[in-house]
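Dear support,

I submitted the protein below through the web form. The confirmation email said the job was done, but the results page showed an empty box. After a refresh the structure appeared. I'm attaching both so you can tell me whether what I see now is the final result or a partial one.
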Amino acid sequence: MKENKRIEIFDGMRGLAAVVVLIYHVLNWSPVGYAAGKFEFINEGWRWFTRSPLKIVWAGNEAVIVFYLIAGFVIAKPYIDGRSIRFGEFVEKRFTRLVLPYWVILLVTFGLIILLGDMKETVRLSGSFNVKWATVPEVGRQLLMMHHDLDTSGGAFWSIVLEWWIALFMPFIGVALRKFPTGDVVAASLAVAWVFMNFSGTVGRVAFYFIFFLVGAVLAKHLDEVRAFYRKRKWLLASALILVPFQWIVGPALERRMALLFTCAGLVLVMVGIIESPFWTRIFKSPFLLFLGRISFSLYLTHTTAIVLFVTVLGQAMDPRVALALSPAFAIGVAVVWYRYVEQGMLANVSLRKVAVRTQK
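What the results page shows now:
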């Protein structure tokens, strides 16, 4: 398989994952969906929708793992293939690609909280929705990419913060995988990560979610071997229906972080299965999924702010549950506009080096 084909498939995966996160927030912000997320079901339909493979339709946390696996793969791959580390250039690209758009939507969200916070308090849905915009968060800490009070600002911002910090390690992981046996790199990386997992706050979360980037990097190095292994055991793909939503099928008895490791295994099977299947390759290279892939970052970044804004305004004139059900169309529209005018417009040609040169002049 050619490299550009593989990346196009990843774009389709990102697009679908972004939609799953969108669906998750819509359902989780409804009272019945929020209750189901706590294993409290109003009827047997919600029980099956939550504790069966159907949970994949609104598996928000699991969809984030898709982003992290792909990011680990894509970032590490060039260094595995021989690229030398130019850390300054790498940080600049990641900063302009990830942090600047995050800052923009964060400031937009802060402005909306100040303008519409009181209005938003009159609209009540689930506990997860009600906490959004309830207070003005500490702007400084969030702009410094700290995992602090992000649940008040938006439902997806936490993963952007973690991705920024984790990505900084990935060029070194890529070089290490090129120079040393995979087992040694994985053992050393997990040992260090395990130490820092015991820390609270941003550090502990970064250490845990680093595991999924590491798995993506290892997959980048050994993709051919993994594909060869899979070809002889395609039946394994069926297990992904259980592994991906594992924490929901097993239930609260299993610690969430442990369950996400099973999810990761299932998602690797899904990724390899898609790559190996001509049918699923065509699906994930379809114009619609590639379109979603192009706007996936904008959709992921803006959708929680867009949904809360939409429900806050329309919830003054209609049942907030109806406004919530209608909000995905608005969120996708906002993402398309953001992609065109912010991601590909205002921020497309931003360069920290150019800014520094102009400042010096």
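Response: this is the final, complete result; the empty box was a page-load delay. Residues 1-6, 355-361 have pLDDT under 50 and may be disordered.
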